[in-house]
Amino acid sequence: MSSRTPDRTPAEPVTPPGDDRGLRADARRNRERVLRTAQRLFAAHGLGVPLDEIARRAGVGPGTVHRHFPTKEALYLAVAIDRIRRLVAEGEALAGTGDPAALFTLLSRMTASGAENAAVKSALAAAEFDLRDAAPDAAADLTHQVARLLDRARRAGVVRHDVTADEVMAIVAGAFAAIRHAGEDAGQERSAHIAGIILDGLRPR
Amino acid sequence: MSSRTPDRTPAEPVTPPGDDRGLRADARRNRERVLRTAQRLFAAHGLGVPLDEIARRAGVGPGTVHRHFPTKEALYLAVAIDRIRRLVAEGEALAGTGDPAALFTLLSRMTASGAENAAVKSALAAAEFDLRDAAPDAAADLTHQVARLLDRARRAGVVRHDVTADEVMAIVAGAFAAIRHAGEDAGQERSAHIAGIILDGLRPR
Amino acid sequence: MSSRTPDRTPAEPVTPPGDDRGLRADARRNRERVLRTAQRLFAAHGLGVPLDEIARRAGVGPGTVHRHFPTKEALYLAVAIDRIRRLVAEGEALAGTGDPAALFTLLSRMTASGAENAAVKSALAAAEFDLRDAAPDAAADLTHQVARLLDRARRAGVVRHDVTADEVMAIVAGAFAAIRHAGEDAGQERSAHIAGIILDGLRPR
Amino acid sequence: MSSRTPDRTPAEPVTPPGDDRGLRADARRNRERVLRTAQRLFAAHGLGVPLDEIARRAGVGPGTVHRHFPTKEALYLAVAIDRIRRLVAEGEALAGTGDPAALFTLLSRMTASGAENAAVKSALAAAEFDLRDAAPDAAADLTHQVARLLDRARRAGVVRHDVTADEVMAIVAGAFAAIRHAGEDAGQERSAHIAGIILDGLRPR
DNA sequence: TATGAATGAGTCTTCATTCAT
DNA sequence: CATGAATGAAGACTCATTCAT
């Protein structure tokens, strides 16, 4: 590349960056495709999906997967962290509204099923690896976000008092599992119903 | 049982037998050891534990594991079915008491953590294979048992009306996952608390 | 056994003995059943048949097979030697008739298909182990028998002169293989035809 | 070929390609090495040779063998099909010469021993798996080729009339077995002699 | 002695990771 | 940088052989 095109990079970080800053456009596109494909496949078939399969579905070679994610665990992590970042961002936005029931809105969104959340369901519910060990920062951010909303809800009297943010997180993970247990084919409505029942347990008696 | 009815079960083992009737004494002992070891290891480390590891820990050769459980899937199943059988038996006993809240007693027992239930947690929560496909009879028995108790609880007005037996099963699976998510080290009390919150969602508003 | 029944063993060796002299009646019967079953299964499915399968089909436990034939190779050998012994006996009988074409009669009988010879076909044709290494005596006996008949046929001018007994043996092995290649379902007639063509090659031009 | 026809095959490899077209140079080289090693070892020690041994001798890892031949059976097949392809090609060439005795030339070549044919000997003679089931096309091609030459030989009166192409194939298989039976160490001359005697059976009486 | 359960070395196969093209 | 072939350490499973009942 000639020195005539130096003005390209400074404008970059519009979208929340992963670890893909400073990559060539094609490299970034590949990283993104691998990440999305991995989310889809992990969610659908568990963490046992072969990397070669992910590479094939993403339309790249296995070597490319390893260039971006040096080990399989790194790919798990990237998938989970990516989802969590989005949830934290959502929580941030909800916190801005001042709604005392924002906690439930966030939790509902988290459990609202659909392909989008499948990866989180899988990653958290499967518990085959523990996010809190692997990506303490991201997990802490999310828990912290939840803690803020929980605090507010508590002050407004819309949530029971004997529950901690950690427990809320565990219960959300449980809701994921329940939905997943109800079956892939359960449908939005059924899933929402189940999640609703579980979240109802959080309301004051 | 009073000592007045000694002619009923003298030849019968006390615990409900698995598929191990008619085996030689040593074979039954080994089968049992493998099954227990598998429960423990699956619960602790997921379904990915090598069979050779299970064999080693059970103090037998890998061939012995295969004699009793021809494939790894057969071992998963045997573990899960064994646990479910016990739950069904518990449900049977509770049904006999006439307590209208027996449903919650059973669910609490199901979720009551401890090594004993760890395998069910793992087997159901992981959902890496679906019991309802693999052992329809055992799963149906359990659901049926739950349905009976749910019906009674409904008539007594101690459970919300908009929930089905299948949904209760899903919610229990969710509670397993939540407990598991809370961590191996969470302790009985904490686990019971989380399960309690989730089950509270089932009570009438 | 009391000393009052010492007259039993001397009368034994009426049928050509295997290695089963001095066995109890039931033990001998088991040995025989294993041998026949092995012949049948080796012929039908090759030397790879599991010993457990042979045991099961013979209606005995695997331990019993090993009592009589300490290794699998010992069983191969016993099967092959048994067949060869019978062929040598047949050759002996034919040699007594004085028929100059007795060689062809023997060879035809050897190739005459049917279950009876299947084991030899397998054992010789497969050549997965070499009889001449493993049971030099039996093989030498048979070759020697063939040599005698070959010599006589030669003197009568009914066989080509440029062929040795070893080559005749090889050609017979070839005929076995040809019949086997023609298919299990070929039928007596077809098999005889093929064997006939091959043996015709031995006649003087 | 004279130098006057250079425009026919410039871009074509000389040996008929297997399924290795379009492979990278190193991949093709490895595939070839595995194939040749497998031919050699199958011929020398039967189909029971461990894949790991083949890999080791070929100087590749076991995974590489599986990349090219996903199962062991696929490797058997590839070996056998490769040999048959060459024989069909030879038959094709011989058919072009117009020689009425071309059948015998082809059969002699087929039976001509040496390392080259060892694999076919093994594959056909062992009959542990049936080519006609596994690779009907290749086997049919060869039989068809033989049928053509047989027909021509019959019209020229150099072969007996009561023999079919299938029987010729069986007899060739028998000749393989006979040669093999005569021993690895028999030498070209001895092998040719035995094969000659067997093929003589095909000539008119 | 017969049985059949147990053993454990050995087999095929998979797949995360490395490296030549 | 991307590709995809190669690697090789496991993993599930088989089966000849041994040994307790």
From TrEMBL, chains A, B, C, D:
Any GO molecular function: DNA-binding transcription factor activity
Cross-referenced InterPro entries: Homeodomain-like_sf, HTH-type_TetR-like_transc_reg, HTH_TetR, Tet_transcr_reg_TetR-rel_C_sf, TetR_SbtR-like_C
PROSITE patterns in the record: HTH_TETR_2 (PS50977)
Residues in the DNA-binding region annotation: 50-69
Superkingdom of origin: Bacteria
Keywords, ordered alphabetically: DNA-binding, Transcription, Transcription regulation
Record-linked Pfam families: TetR_C_43, TetR_N
Protein name (record): TetR family transcriptional regulator
